[in-house]
Amino acid sequence: MPSITNNNPCVVLQKVGSITYEDRPVPELTDPHYVKIAIKQTGLCGSDLHYYETGCCGSFKVEKPMVLGHESSGEIVEVGSAVTSLKVGDRVACEPGIPSRYSQEYKSGNYNLCPHMAFAATPPYDGTLCRYYLLPEDFCVKLPDHVSLEEGALVEPLAVGVHANRLIDVKFGDSIIVFGAGPVGLLCAGVAKAFGCDKVLLVDIIDEKLAFAVEHGLASHTFNSRGQKFDDLMEKVKSIWKDSEHGLPTCGIDATGNQTCTNMCIRALAKKGRFVQVGMGPDNMDNFPIAAVMEKELTVKGSFRYSVNDYNYAVQLLKERKLNVKPLVTHRFKFSEAIEAYEFSKKGQSIKIMISGPE
Ligand SMILES: NC(=O)c1ccc[n+]([C@@H]2O[C@H](COP(=O)([O-])OP(=O)(O)OC[C@H]3O[C@@H](n4cnc5c(N)ncnc54)[C@H](O)[C@@H]3O)[C@@H](O)[C@H]2O)c1
Ligand SMILES: [Zn+2]
């Protein structure tokens, strides 16, 4: 039975370039629907690194010290009086953003777009790199016994992939082209395969990342686009798709945020194709391929984090072993080495860095 210690060490971004440990009060359960989680594993994310290096990410700015981390799993140590679905000792994946119960977005089933969202490690809200974290019970997804806590922490980026694939309704009979072989692109590709795509073409500019994807079954084909033109890409696409019903990919995802990738991805699609933008790029694009969108009757969407059931489906994919996320963890650090972990992540030599603890 997990016990509660009376301290709560946290990894705090004080200001740009400065991370320290702070011992903060153990949070109290005041809402009967909440649970207290002892955090066990936390993945480092590009956004954490952005805050560390620049103090901002997208339109969010760090204006006061903030606990880092939002990709976590842990063990329940206390439950509120109204909690029915979880008990002390359960291992859970933690969905790190709590919307307002009173927003139109929440009521319409799009809670990820709630303007009052309190999201971990997004200013001004503290993150999960601490000993104890509170969440409503329905923002915790119980992990099956055979799914590890590391996999539980990877549910966060996996849910990003699930959300994107669901937005464009990827299913059996589809095929996809995904740009970006970082953790998000790899998981978007892996989810597309798990959802039934027979052909998953992953595009990046780093051979090692592409080889990794194929080795671990996350993509069926790859293309290194460094120095290549759109025609070069299409030669490859047509050779892969030559015997398929549509001759071209029916679905596309950009997970780079690079506008050339978005442009090429959209133009590579079959008629009636569906595209979703996951990568965060510039506010405006120089060359949006609007003619292709019009002539091919394409659907173009945006994707922001995850929403109703994405966490559940992500855990289900892991439960049923529909994709293997474990190899994504290339480097491991202890909670006491969190600052080293952030420093190491700057080198860009890792796919996913995992921080265990605090013990
Ligand atoms: N929409 C969301 O909710 C959401 C959630 C998480 C992350 N993101 C965004 O998704 C993107 C990917 O996240 P990540 O953590 O995997 O980042 P990452 O930086 O690890 O991966 C990006 C990949 O894109 C590749 N790339 C860059 N420029 C390229 C180009 N011109 N051609 C081909 N490949 C290129 C890089 O080599 C890298 O492998 C980021 O922009 C991130 O901000 C969005
Ligand atoms: Zn993240």
From TrEMBL:
Highest rank taxon of the organism: Eukaryota
Domain Enoyl reductase (ER): 17-355
Record keywords, A-Z: Metal-binding, NAD, Oxidoreductase, Zinc
Names of required cofactors: Zn(2+)
InterPro entries xref list: ADH-like_C (IPR013149), ADH-like_N (IPR013154), ADH_Zn_CS (IPR002328), ER (IPR020843), GroES-like_sf (IPR011032), NAD(P)-bd_dom_sf (IPR036291), SDH-like (IPR045306)
Any one biological process term the GO annotation gives: sorbitol catabolic process
Pfam families according to UniProt: ADH_N (PF08240), ADH_zinc_N (PF00107)
A GO term for molecular function: L-iditol 2-dehydrogenase (NAD+) activity
SUPFAM superfamilies: GroES-like (SSF50129), NAD(P)-binding Rossmann-fold domains (SSF51735)
Keyword NAD: yes
Recorded family membership: Belongs to the zinc-containing alcohol dehydrogenase family.
Name of the protein in its database record: Enoyl reductase (ER) domain-containing protein
Protein's organism: Pichia membranifaciens NRRL Y-2026
